[in-house]
Amino acid sequence: xxxxxxxxxxxxxxxxxxxxxxxxxxxxxxxxxxxxxxxxxxxxxxxxxxxxxxxxxxxxxxxxxxxxxxxxxxxxxxxxxxxxxxxxxxxxxxxxxxxxxxxxxxxxxxxxxxxxxxxxxxxxxxxxxxxxxxxxxxxxxxxxxxxxxxxxxxxxxxxxxxxxxxxxxxxxxxxxxxxxxxxxxxxxxxxxxxxxxxxxxxxxxxxxxxxxxxxxxxxxxxxxxxxxxxxxxxxxxxxxxxxxxxxxxxxxxxxxxxxxxxxxxxxxxxxxxxxxxxxxxxxxxxxxxxxxxxxxxxxxxxxxxxxxxxxxxxxxxxxxxxxxxxxxxxxxxxxxxxxxxxxxxxxxxxxxxxxxxxxxxxxxxxxxxxxxxxxxxxxxxxxxxxxxxxxxxxxxxxxxxxxxxxxxxxxxx
Length: 413
Ligand SMILES: [Zn+2]
What we know:
By secondary structure, the protein is α+β, with helices and mostly antiparallel strands.
């Protein structure tokens, strides 16, 4: 069915079209908190996929500050379907883009610009792969229902988007393919086969305020208690189990002449393994209760309160993901591209899907410096970019691997 050299040539010939689509996407600011921009990007994206036969549906986000999720569907001739996942939003406010003169800027093999790498380059890759499949394997392309899910607010974790994807997929959905950027290490392309879960937390301490001059012994110092509690929080980090517990912000008190009655800190914890994640959460919550810092006068104890603010479950190694990785790896070998898996610390929508569908991530192009908009004269700071030459070989592997996946009717787990 596929002649690899021909497939490569075709993709190479259509790369300028994909990069033009990317340029148009990057020109629209789609910061998560800019719903008008996110919705404008959704319209542009829907327009680009329409000639491939996709119809668009907007689904309001559960978070009313955000733009709408975009769902693009193309019905196939069998009950089988595939879910392709990307997101619309970026992390850059328009003022920051303007301040740092951060916009579409090709330089040699790199294109700098907001979202070039995370994740508009991935959406352009998705378009290139689907166009290549339709051209080179029309029967396979027509045989499945394609569902393209574009999250309006991935960068702030939108749990409702995971629910939307899961509702629209079923037992006939062969896989969820996530187009976040490729990783690289030791010069080898890396797909994502696991991601850490993340929980954010807040520790607050209620002490007892007192005049620092005249009634110091009556005070129960909330900041002193918080300092002691945070030592224990920090000690939960265990690199040998890939568990990190990070204290991110801290505050307390409001005057030097007072024994502070309140103090707080917030942070996050991350782990790959569900059991490590659960244990760390339990250890953190166990710090809730009376503290050891007491007033000198009557032994009044500070009260420590621990809350979990939000939670994205880990995506651990699993059979479905491993089977997809094996398929991509063997397809890569056939095309002379070395591909390996990577367990990544950051979250993606894959965390919300892996236990419902065989899921693989990192199908986008390669680039670097995502979430950075700054450039320094000495070159020590460079903003986000995508590498142009990474598109064609990756698109060829994705196209062939997806064709194989459809022909095989899914992966064995
Ligand atoms: Zn992303």
